[in-house]
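User: Can you help me understand a structure? I only have the sequence.
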Amino acid sequence: DADMDPARVLEAVVVGNTAMHHLLLGLPVEQLSRAPYVPSVSDALDIRARELRVRIGPGAYIHFPPVIAGFVGSDHVAALLATNAHMTEEPLLVVDIGTNTEVCLAVNHRLTSASCASGPAFEGGHIRDGMRAASGAIEHVQLDGAEVRLQVVENTEPAGICGSGILDTLAELTAHGIVDSGGRLKREHPRVRTDGRSPEFVLATEEERAGKAALSVTQGDIRQLQLAKAAIATGIQALLEHEGMEARQLSSVIVAGAFGTYIDIRSAITVGMLPDLPLERFNQVGNAAGAGAKMALSSVSQREQARALARQAGYLELATSPGFMKRFVDNTALAPF
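Assistant: Let's start by predicting it. Here is the structure, written out as tokens:
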């Protein structure tokens, strides 16, 4: 894109989850699949690009910021660096939403992070008509009785539904009583149909799509979304409980990640994915990991700060925290917390 010779690149920074970090470096990964999920290397590394077969400038180095744990990688460290989480005086929550959602609670310059296995549902994965946020993706949904209003990326004909549209749909179905708190679709609504299968809510009918197959959110999709949002809510609650806090004490919630950039925070609150706080306390910052990587690329002092952050951050293993499973099951309910 920059129309530049790769040989002119003399330095690079790579951030990512711990598994990708290890695979690129050729490090063992088997231990990442078993408790206690310990990284082979956690400190920052500087590796010659040619040793990794990355074709940039002669003698160029690639800098790898540190990782925190088996499921909390250098992308999370970079996000903390970019959001200045360590500088805050007031309680701050950083939520970097993805297939693996990292959450960090900052209190009095003390950082504690956790990893939530939220899965790919909010990125369109495991959703029947799901897709990434590309042209034709339904990105926002609003219900008015039997009428469905859709906002589609690039204002084209809808081809599928991406994460923000999936979240909106779930929130709207919940708010209008079409889905009960347990996630069950009510069949009385004119947009709910079964056709001998499990029920689905139709966003765009065959007629509205000029004869193409209808686009729907199925009962199975809703179950996937419940699991995803429960994982995130449980991680947030576990961190708050670890610090002896309640959600209302949070002064700010930073929502990061590609999915986090475009979601309607009100929808996330309605379904119980994010805490029920005033909207002005939320700040959607986009690709914080990418921003942190740029900071590390341009500044040696920022690299040292990333090292300090990784050393400073505590890690909470959710699966071993008291009451984890009960809290997770409770959080599958579609209701604010």
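Now, to help you interpret it: The radius of gyration is 21 Å. The mean pLDDT is 95. Let me know which part you'd like to focus on.
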